[in-house]
Amino acid sequence: MAWVILILAGVFEIIWAYSMKMSEGFTKLTPSIVTLIFMILSVVLLSIAMRTLPLGTAYTVWTGIGAIGSFIVGIIVLHEPMTAMRMIAAILIVSGLVLMKLSSTS
Fold first, then answer.
1. Tens-place pLDDT, residues 69-104
2. Do 103 and 60 contact (CB within 8 A), yes or no?
3. Number of folded domains in the chain?
4. What pLDDT, in 10s, does the model give residues 26-65?
5. Is the pTM higher than 0.85?
6. How many CB atoms are closer than 10 A to CB 14?
7. d(CA 18, CA 86)
8. Which domain, by its residues, includes 97?
9. Which residue in 10, 44, 74, 79 is deepest, having the highest Cβ count within 10 Å?
10. Is the dihedral angle over the CA atoms 93, 99, 103, 106 positive or is it negative?
11. Integer CA distances (angstroms), 35 to 12, 15, 70, 82, in order
């Protein structure tokens, strides 16, 4: 169950990262509120997952999900560049997440 909670926390991190971009430096009210709500939800779920999962594993997976998810949202929704170097970096991040999961005993 801790892994499901951690994945949900990572998804919430993607939502708050995107809504923070949409808030234009917290100058737009609705995206700013969405950002704050999902930041809080994400961190609370991370802390719940950390009751069972090791700190290094939980935090690395959480930030990795947020990073890769935000990368994908940036490419698909915001039309950010998808260069070969950025793709290699994303593959390395995902590889690290997989290794972190495989090395976890929880």
1. 999 999 999 999 999 999 999 999 999 888 887 887
2. no
3. 1
4. 999 999 999 999 999 999 999 999 999 999 889 999 999 9
5. yes
6. 20
7. 18
8. 2-103
9. 10
10. positive
11. 9, 7, 14, 25
